[in-house]
Structure formats: structure tokens, C-alpha cells
Write a structure and sequence with these properties.
about 25% strand, Aminopeptidase, 8-stranded mixed beta sheet, single chain, alpha/beta, 4-stranded antiparallel beta sheet
């Protein structure tokens, strides 16, 4: 079967590259993937697959083999782009000003379309059903995955497991990365407004200085991480934006701050956010001011089910060779695939796309991000093989 899959992946490689370039040329932002969904549905229709809409701009399709009710495996790709102006000078450069596929979702979608090609050709040779999930809005809270789950993407039929892949610009093309257990962090956004009483900086006795209060809060919040939680599990709090619109001799009335909190324990996540809010409000009050502490709850942490991931890693070694399989470290970035991982057995792995010889070295979420497109043939073939292996378990 491996030889058949590799042969089909090679046969469809140019088509997959064409899909990716089309998607890269016409990127769409989260929750606005209308033309992207239309394009994907058209390609699936050519394969005889009916794409059902879900979560407004999402799609779900089934590839049914023999005895389709025996087992169901889901494969997921995300479709949205980012609000970034592309700086690459390439024939397929984004034509939608200020929007760019800078996180590889065009590659994910194209690769899954390639997988659909391959598995459609092989449906007489496997038992069970492959559920294809083309998901919107991975980049924007509350995340397309959470909405698709609420609308029943994991039902009718219910998959026993779900597999997802993500491009990895730090990993050389031809390499595949796995990690069992905890892999990516939960993501919450913090929006803090500290209010005081502004005025002339030379008369501090007449003022309530929100800049001083905010400074105390920034420092104190780190204590929630360093002195309230075990150092055995990762947790990160970063305040990335502070605006106090005063001057050299002007104290403003208020200071606004924005930051992110990330961890890999859901119980601690709730406790920490509660303590941060209470601490910030208490400090402001004790210094004569006030604090509004708002939390935009994001994605949960992503966990790769250990047994499933072991199987997928072993299957990938069969397909790629053991020398091309690497172990991934914990990553404190967030991914809404985590919502699936909190519901059913999940495996989220990384597809190497870096090629230093070609100058393809930029990271995700940058204006110069690109991939070595030979990774697309690998991605489509590998995902096909992993899906079929999982159907046999």
C-alpha cells in the first residue's frame, strides 16, 4: 500500500502545488473564507465527494471504503490567512492587500485535497470511513474548531481519532516531527485598564499615578507564575503592550496594558487567571486607583494522545524512514486543534518545510514566510498512509 500511496502522491503533486498557489494568491481572513470554501468544494466535487457546509465557511466530506461503519478517522486542515502584507516576490504572491497565508494554512488545505485524491482512488482497498474536515478561523478566537464541534463535526459519523498536520519552518523538508502528550499551550488574552488621576508631573501629591500603579501590577503578576504554581509544568505570562499617553511632564488619567497567559494545565489555568485579576484589582485599589481586568479566553492546551501518537510515529517511520522522524519539544504557541484533542484521541504532527539552500527559512507569521513545495507531496502521501493505518487498528 505504501508504494501505491507514494505513486499517487507523485502523480498528483503538480495538482497539489497548483491548489496551494491558488489559495496563496487569494487568501481570506478568519470567518471570511467564502471563496476558499467554494474552491475546496469544487475540487472535492470533481472527486465525486459531497462537501457539507459547517460553521458558515467550513466543510466536511466523507470518503467511504468498504464496510464504512467499521471505523471512522478524521483528518483536519485549516483554511484561514493572517492580516499581514506579503513581502515575497513570487508569481503566486497574495493579491488580497494586507492578507497573507503566513502560517501555511494554504499548504494544509492543499495537502488535504491531495489526500482526498489519493484516498478516493484507494477506497476499494480499505474498510471504514475517512472524514475530511476543512476548518475556518484557526487564527481567531473563539476558533473555528470550537464552533465546528458545537455544530456536530465530531458526530454522524463519530470519529475514533483525529489527525492534523502543521508546517514547520524550523524543520528541514523531508523530516516529520511528533510529540506524545502535552504539546502546545492554552492561550488567553489579557486586557487591563488602570485608572488614576492625571495632571502635572511636578505635583505628584495631587495625582493618582496610573503609570506607577501599572508598573507594580506588571511586576506583581509574575509572582502568580513563580510562586503559586509548580515549576514542573510550563506557564508563561507576558505583557506585550503598555500605553500611558502622557508626556515628560504629564501623568495620564489611565494606562492600558495587553498580554497573554499560556499554560498546559486547565485547572491551573482557571486558578491563575482568577488570582491575576484579584491581585491587579487589589494593587490598584491599595494605591488609590482602580483596575479593569478583562480576559478573552482562548484555546485549551493541545494534548497528543500517547498511544495514537506512538502508532502514528511508527507508521510515519515506515513511510518516511526512521532517520526522517524527529521528536518535538514543548511549544508554548497555541492551536485550536486543541479543542479536538480535548474531545477525542488526537495526533497533531509537524511537516518540515525548510530549505536553506533555496532561502526558505522565514518563520510563520512573517511577511516573508514560504515553504519548500516538495513538502506538499510528502504531506498528502503521509496523511493518507496514517489514515489508512489507523483504520486497521
Amino acid at each position: 500500500m505504501i508504494d501505491s500511496i507514494k505513486s499517487l502522491a507523485k502523480e498528483y503533486a503538480n495538482d497539489i502545488i497548483a491548489y496551494r498557489r491558488h489559495l496563496h494568491t487569494y487568501p481570506e481572513l478568519s470567518f471570511h473564507e467564502y471563496n476558499t470554501a467554494k474552491f475546496v468544494a469544487e475540487q472535492l466535487k470533481k472527486l465525486g465527494l459531497s462537501a457539507q457546509p459547517l460553521a458558515n465557511t467550513g466543510l466536511v466530506a466523507l470518503i467511504e471504503g468498504k464496510n464504512p461503519n467499521s471505523k471512522v478517522v478524521a483528518l483536519r486542515a485549516d483554511m484561514d490567512a493572517l492580516p499581514i502584507t506579503e513581502a515575497n516576490d513570487i508569481p503566486y504572491k497574495s493579491q488580497n492587500q494586507g492578507v497573507m497565508h503566513a502560517c501555511g494554512h494554504d499548504a494544509h488545505t492543499a495537502s488535504l485535497l491531495g489526500t482526498a485524491h489519493i484516498l478516493s482512488q484507494l477506497k476499494d482497498h480499505f474498510e471504514g470511513t475517512i472524514k475530511l474536515i476543512f476548518q475556518p478561523a484557526e487564527e481567531k478566537a473563539p476558533g473555528g474548531a470550537s464552533i465546528m464541534i458545537k455544530e456536530g463535526v465530531l458526530e454522524n459519523p463519530t470519529p475514533q481519532s483525529i489527525i492534523g498536520q502543521h508546517v514547520a519552518p524550523l524543520v528541514p523538508v523531508g523530516k516529520i516531527g511528533f510529540r506524545e502528550g502535552m504539546y502546545m499551550a492554552s492561550t488567553d488574552e489579557l486586557f487591563i485598564t488602570v485608572k488614576g488621576k492625571g495632571g502635572h508631573a511636578a505635583m505628584p501629591e495631587m495625582l493618582i499615578d496610573p503609570i506607577l500603579i501599572a508598573s507594580h501590577i506588571v511586576v506583581a503578576l509574575q509572582q502568580v507564575i513563580s510562586r503559586n504554581f509548580t515549576p514542573k509544568l510550563p506557564a508563561v505570562l507576558s505583557i506585550g503592550k503598555i500605553i500611558g499617553n502622557g508626556a515628560t511632564n504629564v501623568i495620564p488619567n489611565e494606562v492600558t496594558m495587553e498580554g497573554t497567559f499560556r499554560t498546559m494545565n486547565e485547572e491551573w489555568r482557571g486558578i491563575a487567571l482568577s488570582r491575576m485579576k484579584k491581585l491587579a484589582e487589589g494593587i490598584a485599589e491599595s494605591m488609590g486607583g482602580s483596575c479593569e481586568f478583562n480576559i478573552l479566553k482562548g484555546y485549551p492546551f493541545l494534548v497528543n494522545e500517547p498511544m495514537l501518537t506512538k502508532r502514528m510515529k511508527a507508521a510515519a517511520a515506515e513511510f518516511m524512514g526512521k532517520e526522517n522522524i524527529i521528536d518535538l519539544d514543548l511549544w508554548m504557541a497555541g492551536e485550536d486543534f486543541a479543542f479536538y484533542s480535548q474531545q477525542i484521541d488526537a495526533c497533531f504532527y509537524r511537516l518540515g518545510t525548510r530549505n536553506e539552500a533555496k532561502g526558505i527559512v522565514s518563520g510563520v507569521h512573517t511577511p516573508t514566510f514560504d515553504i519548500d513545495e516538495s513538502a506538499l507531496e510528502i504531506g498528502a502521501g503521509l496523511m493518507s498512509w496514517l489514515a489508512l493505518k489507523e483504520l486497521t487498528i
